[in-house]
Design goal:
This protein has 1 helix and 13 strands. The chain has 128 residues and is mainly beta. It has one domain. Strands 1, 2, 3, 4, 5, 6, 7, 8, 9, 10, 11, 12 and 13 form a 13-stranded parallel β-sheet that branches. The longest helix is centred in the last third of the chain and has 7 residues. The radius of gyration is 14 Å and the shape is globular. The relative contact order is 0.20.
Length: 128
C-alpha cells in the first residue's frame, strides 16, 4: 500500500518573512515575504506571496508579486499575478488579473535537493 505524501499548510492568520525551500507540497493560505521553492504550490484565495516562486506546479488563486519559474502554472479566476512567468505549460482563467512578462521555456531544470517542507516550516518563526 502506498502512502500519500503530506501536504504542509500555512494558515490564513500566519505571515512568514523568509525563504521556504523544501521538498513536497505546500498549501499557502497566509502570507509569505520571501522565496518559495517546493514541488507543488497552491496559493489559496487569501494567499499572498511577495517574492519569487520556484516549483514543478503552481496553482494561483490569490496574490503573487514576484517571478515564477515552474513547469506548469495555473492562474485561476480572481487571481492577481505581477512579475515574470517562466513555464512549460500556462493556463490562465478568464477574469484573472495577470500583469506579467511571459517566457515559455521548455524542460526547465528547477529543483535541487531539499528537505521535506514540513521540516522547513517547523524551523521558521511565524510573524503573526
Amino acid at each position: 500500500m502506498f502512502l500519500k505524501p503530506k501536504k504542509a499548510v500555512i494558515r490564513r492568520n500566519r505571515t512568514i518573512k523568509g525563504d521556504i525551500k523544501g521538498q513536497g507540497e505546500l498549501d499557502l493560505r497566509g502570507k509569505v515575504n520571501g522565496t518559495i521553492e517546493v514541488d507543488i504550490l497552491t496559493i489559496g484565495r487569501k494567499g499572498y506571496v511577495k517574492g519569487d516562486v520556484i516549483a514543478d506546479c503552481v496553482r494561483i488563486m490569490g496574490y503573487v508579486q514576484g517571478n515564477i519559474q515552474a513547469r506548469k502554472i495555473i492562474v485561476e479566476h480572481g487571481a492577481h499575478v505581477e512579475g515574470e512567468l517562466s513555464y512549460e505549460q500556462l493556463s490562465v482563467a478568464s477574469q484573472a488579473d495577470l500583469s506579467a512578462k511571459l517566457t515559455p521555456r521548455p524542460l526547465l531544470k528547477l529543483l535541487s535537493e531539499r528537505q521535506p517542507v514540513e521540516q522547513v516550516l517547523a524551523n521558521l518563526q511565524a510573524v503573526a
